[in-house]
């Protein structure tokens, strides 16, 4: 993806198209590993890292501890588009895509 995206602490920009996304640290909770039922209904969900930490979660690498529960997690980023996709899509230099999700997939795969 070299040269196709610019990443800063709070945004992702796809130049030269100018499509911008706000990014926030997020956590995908894959499984509860102790066998204890999850009282928060977190398994198979993506949550903002700050929201989990506000609940008291301790997050490190691929794991998270919250109360008596331990989880296998994936750390990542949640991207929210700034502006409407329709406004971006009508630009002359826009990459042909049906949605922001497809646009990000195309850029990440190098098919642009």
Notable characteristics:
alpha+beta, 3 helices, elongated
Folded structure, characterized:
There is one protein chain. By secondary structure, the chain is α+β, with helices and mostly antiparallel strands. It has one domain (6-105). The chain is built from three helices and seven strands. Strands 1, 2, 3, 4, 5, 6 and 7 form a seven-stranded antiparallel beta sheet that branches. Strand 1 (6-7) and strand 2 (11-14) form a beta hairpin. The radius of gyration is 17 Å and the shape is elongated. It starts with 5 loop residues before the first strand and ends with a helix. The model has no long low-confidence stretch (mean pLDDT 89).
Summarize, please.
The chain has 112 residues and is an alpha+beta fold. It is built from three helices and seven strands; from the N terminus they run E-E-E-E-H-E-E-E-H-H.
Write the layout of secondary structure elements.
Elements: E1 6-7, E2 11-14, E3 19-32, E4 45-48, H1 49-54, E5 58-60, E6 63-66, E7 69-81, H2 85-89, H3 100-109
Antiparallel strand pairs: 1-2, 2-3, 3-4, 3-7, 5-6, 6-7
Output the structural class. Answer: alpha+beta
Give the end-to-end Cα distance, rounded to a whole number of Å.
Answer: 10 Å
> Count of helices?
3
> Mind describing the biggest β-sheet?
7 strands, antiparallel
What fraction of the residues are assigned to beta strands by DSSP?
35-45%
Write down the secondary-structure element order: EEEEHEEEHH
What level of helicity do the residues show? 10-25%
Count of distinct structural domains? 1
Unreliable residue stretches: none
Instruction: Determine Rg (CA atoms, Å).
Output: 17 Å
């Amino acid at each position: 993806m070299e040269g196709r995206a610019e990443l800063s602490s709070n945004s992702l920009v796809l130049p030269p198209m100018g499509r911008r996304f706000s990014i926030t640290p997020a956590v995908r909770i894959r499984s509860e590993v102790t066998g204890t039922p999850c009282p928060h209904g977190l398994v198979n969900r993506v949550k903002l890292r700050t929201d989990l930490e506000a609940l008291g979660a301790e997050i490190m690498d691929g794991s998270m501890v919250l109360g008596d529960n331990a989880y296998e997690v994936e750390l990542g980023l949640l991207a929210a588009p700034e502006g409407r996709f329709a406004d971006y899509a009508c630009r002359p230099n826009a990459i042909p895509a049906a949605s922001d999700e497809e646009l990000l997939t195309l850029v990440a795969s190098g098919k642009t």
